[in-house]
Predict the 3D structure of the following.
Amino acid sequence: MNVIVVAVGRLKESYLKEAEAEYVKRLRPYCKLEIREVKDEAKLLAAIPDRAAVVALDQTGATPSSREFAERYLRGGGGDTVVFAIGGADGHSEAVRERANHLVSFGKMTIAHRLVRVLLAEQIYRGYRILRGEPYHRD
């Protein structure tokens, strides 16, 4: 499966870049992961392939468990490409919400959008480990 993370903004902090890079490396045996950084929501929409399933990280979204996340969004739910969309500091536009097949939230707390990239990478890694029955996740 192809997994694309499209994020508004760039990671500037070296510690966040290193954390994200670690999960990208860990994911190599599981999927083809690509991270695209864009300047705004219009570019985010343009970066989404036509037939991709889109999961927008949004405060109004569902709050799945890690197992539910794996089953719903990583087990081929929508084709061979899934796009995870991360908005900027002000969240997503209505246009992105309408394009999304799913809205997902990491909870009610406010989390810096830069940090969400690392959290998402970890959850994708955890999800693939869950789907393959490999040790890492504990229910």
About this structure: Residues 58 and 92 are 7 Å apart (CA to CA). The chain has one domain: 2-131.
